[in-house]
Amino acid sequence: MRRWWPLTAVCLGSFMLIVDTTVVTVALPDIAGDVHASLGAMQWVMNIYTLALGVLTLSAGSIGDLFGHRAVYAGSVALFALASLACGLAANESVLIAARGVQGIGGAAMFVTSVALLGTHYSDKARGVAIGVWSAVVGAAAAVGPVFGGLLIQYLGWRAIFFINLPLSLVTLALTLAFVTATPRRAGATVDGPGILAFGVCSGLLTYALISAGDEGFARAQVIVLLAASAVALVAFVLIERRRRQPMLDLGLFRSRSFSSLMFCVTASAWAFACLVFTSVWLQSLLGLSPLQSGAVLLPLAVTSFLVSTFVGRVLHKVSPRVTIGLSLFLLAVGSALVSLMLRPDSGWQALLPGLAIIGAGVGIGIPAGGAAVLASVPPERAGMGSGTMASFRQLGQSLGVAVLGLVFQAGSGAWGGGGIGASVESVAKGVRPIELVQAGASGLSRVYVVSAVVAAVGFVLAVSFIRKPPAVAPAEPVPAASAK
User: Fold this and answer.
1) Of the given ranges (24-28, 278-282, 354-358, 371-375), which has the lowest mean pLDDT?
2) Angle formed at CA 175 by CA 136 and CA 180, multiple of 5 degrees
3) Is residue 154 part of a domain?
4) Which CATH number goes with the domain that contains 30?
5) Are residues 176 and 308 in the same domain?
6) CA–CA separation, 285 and 427 (whole Å)
7) What pTM value is reported for the model?
């Protein structure tokens, strides 16, 4: 039993992190009313967290490789707890936004080092089981977050969604220090400061550009300038890494069509999560469901994701990632297409359930399969780099998905008129819910899932065509005694 305590520590921290990501969406109206925040400020309560994740995931993975994954994980849990306390005590929008940014810093390091810790503590079948269980927890947390948040907000108020992180963080920290084996700092290794700076600028500008594009479209001058500046920073990052003796990111990995295709598949799979943003808008703002009810609609996705992840983890070491990742994207495509086909102008929330269940199965296969494939592609001492790269591409995929699908949602909801989504949602909040508005929302959401299905289908083709099982990489040092064999 002792060998599974590191997995418990990682899963508890990840559950807290993912729930906190989704639960804030449900709490925004209450937060805005309590701290008298503007709509723009509330958007930044969400966006600053996304921005921090986009900027820091790869850097956090690299730092974990250098200074030890346990040390970085424990430090990130402590930082996340302090930031959560600050969020819960925030008296105005400025303090809340700043605290959410610090939460994002801790969250980025926590999420990246989670995968790395599983890679260094478990091997062979046990690694597959550990990644499967962790993936199941992550998928379930993302789906039940709105339900959990709705309960906390209804009975304890919005500040409870942040205060609940304090006891969870203390337990996670205690388990980490007691059962997770410390890894020594890599001899002679140094922090890739120029690479971290260049990648931070590149990913930060790109994430901000995608956030802006989701609100204003890609044709706006500000968005174009941000994208161009991000491209320049990317070129600088590549030039820096090619000259580093110990680069933050091994660019040689991308010479492999298998690895490059894997990263595209990770990006494509994130669009399924981006769809949930607009699904929540349709359920709450147009159908009039409460946060608790809309969260319950997503339970089929959570249940199938949890069950499938747990099962798939047991067989990951036997099956080629081409099969598992390909099957995941195939199910995401089929599930998204089914949601689109079943959505009609007069549809209710029941129309979502069959498609969401299939999407959940795809997520349940894809998360553990992607994590196992990435960890198998890099030596154990660079597990942080591998997991950081995967997390960066997943974050990019979600940010890009929200931006593009937001425009698709608006275009597909043309009947909403000149006021756009914001004006329509505002009218619903005042008790006005004309049938034309509900029908337009269903049309827009249907198109969102069509686009998601196409992206997943492209990923499926790449997965079955190019992804191959990487050669086994011998560990640089014996697996710690407390780990699983």
Assistant:
1) 24-28
2) 85
3) yes
4) 1.20.1250.20
5) no
6) 9
7) 0.81
**302 is written with which tokens?**
């959570």
> Does residue 177 share a domain with residue 256?
no
Residues of the domain holding 112: 1-182
> CA 377 to CA 369: how far, in whole Å?
12
Residue 238 pLDDT grade (very low, low, confident, very high; cuts 50, 70, 90): very high
Q: Residue 236: helix, strand or coil by DSSP? A: helix
pLDDT surpassing 70 at residue 53: yes
Q: Where are the beta strands (DSSP E) in 154-205?
A: none
Q: Residue 148 is inside which H or E element, if any?
A: helix 124-156
Q: What is the largest CA-CA distance in the chain?
A: 67
Counting the structural domains of the chain, the total is 2
Q: What is the pLDDT of residues 196-234, one digit of tens each?
A: 889 889 988 888 888 788 667 788 888 899 999 999 999
**Residue where a domain stops, chosen among 161, 182, 203:** 182
Could you tell me which residues come within 8 angstroms of residue 196 by beta carbon, excluding any fewer than 6 positions away?
Answer: 59, 62, 248
Last residue of a domain, one of 157, 182, 207: 182
Say yes or no: 332 and 463 in one domain.
Answer: yes
Amino acid at 1: M
Name the token pair of 115: 């995968």
Is 269:397 a contact under the CB 8 Å cutoff? yes
pLDDT band at 183 (very low <50, low <70, confident <90, very high): confident
Is the same domain home to 5 and 137? yes
Average pLDDT, the chain: 82
Q: How far is residue 71's CA from residue 111's CA, in Å, rounded to a whole number? A: 14
- Taking the C-alpha atoms of residue 102 and residue 203, their distance in angstroms, rounded to an integer, is 17
For residue 130, being part of any structural domain is answered with yes
Residue 289 domain flag: yes
Tell whether 136 and 29 lie within a shared domain.
yes
> For tokens 């319950």, what's the residue?
296
CA 63 to chain centre: 20
Flag whether 275 is in a domain. yes
pLDDT digits (tens, 9 = 90+) for 90-124: 988 899 999 999 998 998 889 888 888 888 888 77
Q: Count of residues for the chain?
A: 485
- Rounded to whole angstroms, the Cα distance separating 265 from 369 reads 11
Alpha-carbon torsion (168, 170, 175, 181), positive or negative: positive
From the list 71, 86, 67, the residue with the least C-alpha distance to 186 is 67
